[in-house]
Every structure is written in structure tokens, then in C-alpha cells.
Specification:
By secondary structure, the protein is an alpha/beta fold. It has 8 helices and 7 strands; from the N terminus they run H-H-E-E-H-E-H-E-H-E-H-E-E-H-H.
Length: about 250
């Protein structure tokens, strides 16, 4: 008798849970996560005005959450606005060793980072860690463009990894658009708009399906992003803060 796709998905998640790697003690991870969110939330709200649009759409079950990416501060804005549960993990620091770089050390301290190596030398381990997050009932957040964007209102091409993890993890994709974080000016409003979930669990894991699903995520994000007019740039401190951790190697003075 065919157990059906739902049971097969449950068995797959159970296998992943049995191999879940968690080098940090669970109680320590929990304390760090909630304490860090309080501190980061205070600092973020002291400088800018973040706002969550359609909070009722925020996923309450495991999901791949795909964001656009305008600023190094985006992860901290997300931690400020996201509900405490399910816990949000972020896939994206480029170094496996999160002791490299001040921003990575801060993200790594939270205990909710899933690092990957751009050279794909350890892609299998990276993918397994990402799927383990979903198997544990968490949210896997991915900045789908894979790099910072220069322009408000523009969504760069989304990487197929977003669809790959959703299909293999048997979870939906929730597109979430960030607007207003390109320049960090005091008192500026930053909006995080939550879109409707895109079903992925029942889809095939072939290239055509992944490409189609990636296109759906791209269209959903583009529809959610609200262009922000930069009528005035921030002062000296705001310009420094905007670029202090920004990874934009293609820029020249």
C-alpha cells in the first residue's frame, strides 16, 4: 500500500532529525537567541523605524523564507520584527568558520547561522545543515539574490537554491520583501512585507520544476517590493553605518 507523499515527507524529516548537528547546548542556544533579539531589537528601533506588513502571513510552520537583500543590517531588522517562534535561521554567511569577520561573529553568536562556501567545496554538508533546520521545525531564511543589491525596488535574479531546499525539505516558500534599508538614516522607515506562501512540497525535484518555482518566487518578491525614493542621503554617520559591514566588492570609489 502506497504510504503517500505526506508520510514519505514525515519519514524524510525524521531521518534528518536523527542526524541533526547542534554543537551548541540547546539551553545556551535558546538563551542567546532570545537575549540577542531583545538587544538587537532595542538598537534597531533606537535608530530606524521598522514595520512588519501583513504579520498574519508570517509562517508558523517550517518554511523556506526568501528575502531580497539591500543592507548588511537586514538580518538584524528581521530578528527585530520576526516572532520568537518558529526560530529563524539564516543561510548565507560565506565562511564556514563564523569567527571570521565582525558581522559573522555576531551572527554566529546567535547560534542560528547556516554557513556555506561559495566555492561549493562543502556543498553536501551545507545542504544537509539547511535541511536539518527545516526538519527541526524551524524557518530557513535565505537572501535569495546571493548578494547585496544597489537599488531600492530592484530584485536581482533569485538563486535556485531557494526552490531546491523547499522541494527537498517538503515545505512552502514564503517571499518577504525588505524596503528602505539601502541607506541607514536616523528615523528612517524600513518595511518588511510578508507575501503569501508558495507551495513546493508536492513538486518534483527536477531542473524544470526548480526553474519554474524559482520564477514564481522572483515574481512574488518583485510584486512585494515597494520602491523607496531617497530624497536625501544620510549624514556622515549614516553613510558610514550604511557601508561599515557592507560586502560590495564590485564598487569602486
Amino acid at each position: 500500500m502506497d504510504p503517500g507523499p505526506a508520510k514519505a515527507g514525515d519519514e524524510r524529516r525524521a531521518r534528518l532529525r536523527s542526524n541533526f548537528e547542534d554543537r551548541l547546548a540547546p539551553w545556551r542556544r535558546t538563551v542567546r537567541y532570545h537575549f540577542g533579539r531583545i538587544v538587537i531589537g532595542f538598537l534597531v528601533r533606537a535608530y530606524v523605524r521598522p514595520r512588519l506588513v501583513h504579520p498574519e502571513r508570517w509562517p508558523t510552520e517550517p518554511a523556506v523564507v526568501c528575502f531580497n537583500h539591500l543592507s548588511w543590517a537586514d538580518p538584524f531588522v528581521l530578528y527585530t520584527l520576526a516572532p520568537a517562534r518558529p526560530r529563524l535561521y539564516l543561510y548565507g554567511p560565506k565562511e564556514t568558520d563564523l569567527r571570521v569577520g565582525r558581522r559573522n561573529r555576531l551572527i554566529g553568536w546567535f547560534g542560528t547561522a547556516v554557513p556555506f562556501e561559495p566555492g561549493k567545496r562543502d556543498l553536501l554538508t551545507s545542504s544537509r545543515r539547511a535541511l536539518n533546520v527545516l526538519a527541526q521545525g524551524r524557518l530557513l531564511g535565505i537572501f535569495g539574490e546571493g548578494r547585496l543589491s544597489e537599488d531600492e525596488g530592484l530584485v536581482l535574479p533569485i538563486n535556485p537554491g531557494v526552490a531546491f531546499f523547499a522541494v527537498h525539505g517538503g515545505v512552502p516558500i514564503v517571499p518577504i520583501a525588505i524596503s528602505g534599508s539601502r541607506w541607514l538614516r536616523f528615523g528612517k522607515r524600513i518595511e518588511v512585507r510578508v507575501g503569501l506562501p508558495i507551495a513546493a512540497a508536492s513538486r518534483k525535484a527536477d531542473r524544470a520544476t526548480i526553474a519554474q518555482l524559482t520564477g514564481e518566487v522572483q515574481a512574488a518578491l518583485e510584486a512585494l517590493v515597494v520602491p523607496v525614493s531617497e530624497e536625501r542621503l544620510p549624514g556622515r554617520f549614516g553613510r558610514w553605518l550604511t557601508d561599515v559591514f557592507a560586502d560590495r566588492p564590485w564598487r569602486t570609489e
